[in-house]
Specification:
The chain is of the alpha+beta class and 137 residues long. Helix content is 23%, strand content 33%. Strands 1, 2, 3, 4, 5, 6 and 9 form a seven-stranded mixed beta sheet that branches. Strands 7-8 form a two-stranded antiparallel ribbon. It is globular.
């Protein structure tokens, strides 16, 4: 593959994940109940603070379950759920505060497993401009 074509594909993938991040940022303003792949219904109280460094994409998010229980922690975004394993997050304790894995598409159909052994729900969240395809490494 030509270098230019490879860069263009990576840029497209990154802009797709960026579209998902922008959509997640405004999720709290929509006041909608979002349903995880396991059927849990959540409302975004605060999407958290965008992380510009290593680790989860959003820090200190606040979610409220349909029954009123508050869930606080980090949120990780990927174009596809399989990227969690591809990026090695399941072996990285730096991701053990993740409480929700937000994806453009769920290509695994399983909850996300943390290095601690805990599992967190997967939420498929549609974002304008999000394209199907491979997640960049």
């Amino acid at each position: 593959m030509k270098q230019g074509a490879q860069n263009k594909g990576t840029e497209r993938a990154e802009s797709s994940e960026e579209a998902l991040a922008r959509a997640w940022t405004v999720a709290a303003t929509l006041n909608n109940l979002l349903t995880t792949q396991e059927g849990e219904r959540l409302r975004v109280v605060s999407p958290g603070v965008r992380n510009g460094g290593p680790g989860p994409d959003f820090l200190r998010a606040v979610l409220r379950s349909e029954r009123g229980r508050l869930v606080r922690g980090d949120v990780e975004l990927h174009r596809a759920s399989s990227a969690w394993k591809l990026h090695g997050h399941g072996r990285d304790p730096g991701y053990d505060r993740v409480v929700l894995h937000v994806v453009g598409r769920d290509d695994e159909g399983l909850p996300t497993q943390l290095s601690s052994g805990a599992r967190v729900p997967v939420l498929v969240y549609s974002a304008p401009g999000l394209e199907q395809g491979r997640e960049p490494h």
